[in-house]
């Protein structure tokens, strides 16, 4: 049976039922680990005895990243330089990492690539892939993942990690919450497989809406014309290369400034996960695609602009949370299935024992002229029919709520006091020549110095030790103090 699907919105990713099947194979915790590995640009390798499972797993993992995109088509603009009579290409999009659901045997050397990737290989090459030291290997048949010791896998920040795990458990295992009741309520029926798939995707949409809340307030758009126009025919060769050099040099510092503002206001300066996500290529494509203030909006734009407060309010109320998840899932399902009467073509299945026949009739030759006539008739009907997809209606992108800290106020105060205590203890150990204790506390003190309060505490503590006539340091003490001051100045 061959199905023909028509989607309503081309910006939303299409995954059919791949995500749900992926969770059946791997489980909640393993999928969350692979999800974090892909977002933090680690190498992920699937292996299975089924080619279909490899393709479905890669497609599902990519779909969970929406609104981020792992693959992005390169776009170019052409500019003609009259003076030199040559054609130049200005590349303004972002390249993509290797994405190969089924890797041929002749290309196994690609697994040694230094760049992140999502690749699937057949299980017959199991012995070859175990030699890879920096690759996260997922066994789809056994349901296990192998994370090498040299890889530090950053996890989602709390409380988002716990909320996501709880939401996935409620959707995939609804009876688990009432399993210990003496008189359990009537058993909750699971949704259809395709609807469960959309409910899982809706949970990750809610996750990204909370993670990127207020991201538009940290964007700065610099534009002189409606569309950038570069006239190369009036620019000298040296000036052209100087302009490109300045552009390359200035762009990273500008982006890091915006990211630092976002992380600081979210209270996640010390969080490795979000820092790696913001520095990744997928987020760079996200900013370039969703940064303009006037463009076509989709479900994620509406969610991050209007539904974040509702998501926070539903944290302690599972029934309301499930209701919101199903509302989002219904929109995702309608996007893939706008017409309940799906047009499909029935392909007859072979009869039982047909493969045992001695004389097998050859498949008849297809008439090329007749096929071309049918194609032309179909094109003529489609040109006169109204468009099935929703038109791209551009509008002003809503700014949404402001950037706020992801942590609760009480836990933020506790963590701030704990960081200050770590800085004070580290400085005391340095001046008391307790170098073993200093080595233990120095990494935590350096991480704490990313905060403004900890930097202020550092200056106060150093000032107190100067007043105590203890300003003379040996080489080891001087090295520790310089490292802390250098970290504070950065």
UniProtKB/TrEMBL annotation:
<dbReference type="InterPro" id="IPR037516">
    <property type="entry name" value="Tripartite_DENN"/>
</dbReference>
<dbReference type="InterPro" id="IPR022096">
    <property type="entry name" value="SBF1/SBF2"/>
</dbReference>
<dbReference type="InterPro" id="IPR005112">
    <property type="entry name" value="dDENN_dom"/>
</dbReference>
<keyword id="KW-1133">Transmembrane helix</keyword>
<dbReference type="Pfam" id="PF12335">
    <property type="entry name" value="SBF2"/>
</dbReference>
<dbReference type="Pfam" id="PF02141">
    <property type="entry name" value="DENN"/>
</dbReference>
<protein>
    <recommendedName>
        <fullName>UDENN domain-containing protein</fullName>
    </recommendedName>
</protein>
<dbReference type="GO" id="GO:0005085">
    <property type="term" value="F:guanyl-nucleotide exchange factor activity"/>
</dbReference>
<keyword id="KW-0812">Transmembrane</keyword>
<dbReference type="InterPro" id="IPR001194">
    <property type="entry name" value="cDENN_dom"/>
</dbReference>
<feature type="transmembrane region" description="Helical">
    <location>
        <begin position="6"/>
        <end position="25"/>
    </location>
</feature>
<dbReference type="InterPro" id="IPR043153">
    <property type="entry name" value="DENN_C"/>
</dbReference>
<dbReference type="GO" id="GO:0032483">
    <property type="term" value="P:regulation of Rab protein signal transduction"/>
</dbReference>
<keyword id="KW-0344">Guanine-nucleotide releasing factor</keyword>
<feature type="domain" description="UDENN">
    <location>
        <begin position="1"/>
        <end position="297"/>
    </location>
</feature>
<keyword id="KW-0472">Membrane</keyword>
<dbReference type="GO" id="GO:0031410">
    <property type="term" value="C:cytoplasmic vesicle"/>
</dbReference>
<dbReference type="InterPro" id="IPR051696">
    <property type="entry name" value="DENN_Domain_GEFs"/>
</dbReference>
